[in-house]
Amino acid sequence: MWVSSHSTPPSLPDPQPTTHPHNMTTLTFLILCLEGAVLSFNVAAAAALVPSIAKDFALSQFLVGRIVWLYMLPYGISALLYGPLVRAFDAKRVELFCLFFFSCANLLAAFARDINILFVARILMGIFGASVIPLGLILIGKHIETQKRGEYVGLFFGATFVASLLGLFLSGIIPWRMIFLIPGIAGFILILVMSLFLPSFKKDATGFKVNYAVALKDRNVLIVFTYIFIVSLLYHGIQQWLGVYFSKGFALSQFSISMLITLTSLSGIFGEVIGGKFADLLGRIKAIDTGVILMALSAFLLMLHSPLLILALLMVIWGVGWTFNHAGLSTLLTDMPKEYLHEAASLNSSVRFISGGLGAALGGALMQQSFVLGLTVFGICLISLLFLSKKLR
To answer: In this predicted model, what pLDDT tens digit does every residue of 65-97 receive, in sequence order?
Structure first.
């Protein structure tokens, strides 16, 4: 149960709101999952495409590599807008607007004739793609009863992991432009489906209001997002450098490296679904802590010079650990007081992407010194999160 830290909160709503618990139909939820899949199709693949794009444009890979953070930073900043926006306007109209421009941005990337156009396309993808995850969490929080939210959160993010895995797999087979063309076309098809079958959420609109400052004054809210910031920073500090570690530390081939990293996404599909169910049955905090323990275990064992099969197992454990933690935290966010639900959903995406970018930079600085040093520091920090999670509510 979510408990406010204020001593006398006379206007605080029921921490487990029961309004509209059954209003989300299977079709509505499926449409949300499809939208998440379209958004996520080229998220993981973008980094893998850097060499191919650089070769096509005859440019440095370091220059082309900007397509990763030119997506992440606008995404993290823009995510803060969508919680307040869907409080003021019909969420259906907001999503149709954003999906239209997100699809256009993908088509712009697919037909880009120079790197600058591709950079602009990636910025636009981040701005308009940032609406999907906050909307999904807000609707689950408002329209799914408390004891089933973890399952729905797990299925929602599981769909995004499936799409991300598919895009990552296809990035090694088809031309790089197709990785942007596919979600561009799929997005326009989904716009038609949403127009016809997604119900209006106008009754949820209560007027534009930004509660970030008020929400973060609540000690429990602040602790949750401090935790999210730290765990996302630690995850990306390791995840973004696994390919380099496997190349330099184990001298693995590109195929072996790609397959190992693919395992983190593949295991993540099951981790989200099972982790969400775990959060419902045994509690949000237990799911969160189980994920951190598995991640820390993987980080420490990665320092050993293990054979390929053991590395594969560690990647599965790493992926499951991250998604158990992610599903537990995301479900905890849907339990927040309705007063903070919009802000919580937006802050979740924003904080994760901004801290993820910082984590990748910090990880690079540590890993350049020593991979053992980097893995040790991040592993110890992950273990320390078990103490912070005791303060989560």
So the answer is: 778 778 888 888 898 888 778 777 888 899 999
Phi, psi of 11 (to 5 degrees): -100, 5
Q: Which two tokens stand for residue 319?
A: 């992926």
Q: Is the dihedral of CA 273, 19, 193, 176 positive or negative?
A: negative
- Length of the chain counted residue by residue: 393
pLDDT given for residue 14 in this prediction:
39
Max distance between CA atoms of the chain, in angstroms, equals 63
Amino acid, res. 186 = A
What is the assigned CATH class of domain 211-393?
Answer: mainly alpha
**Does pLDDT of 22 surpass 70?**
no
- Write the pLDDT tens digit of every residue in 192-244: 999 998 888 777 666 666 667 777 777 888 888 899 999 999 998 898 778 77
Q: How far is CA 392 from CA 21, 83, 254, 385, 389, in A?
A: 25, 22, 41, 11, 5
* Secondary structure string (H, E, C) spanning 143-182: HCCHHHHHHHHHHHHHHHHHHHHHHHHHCCCCCHHHHHHH
Cα angle 186-187-189, degrees, rounded to a multiple of 5: 65
Of 70, 52, 357, 46, which Cα lies nearest the Cα of 183?
Answer: 46
Helix (H, G, I), strand (E, B) or coil at 73: helix
Joined together, the tokens standing for residue 265 give 């996404």
Whole-structure pTM over 0.85, yes or no?
no
Do residues 15 and 3 touch, judged by C-beta distance below 8 A? yes
User: Which residues contact residue 208 at a Cβ distance below 8 angstroms, ignoring those fewer than 6 apart?
Assistant: 84, 85, 87, 88
Domains 23-210 and 211-393 belong to one CATH topology: yes
Give CA–CA dist 321/323, Å, rounded: 6
Cα separation, 341 vs 343, whole angstroms: 6
Q: Which CATH architecture fits 23-210?
A: Up-down Bundle (1.20)
| Boundaries of every domain in the chain | 23-210, 211-393
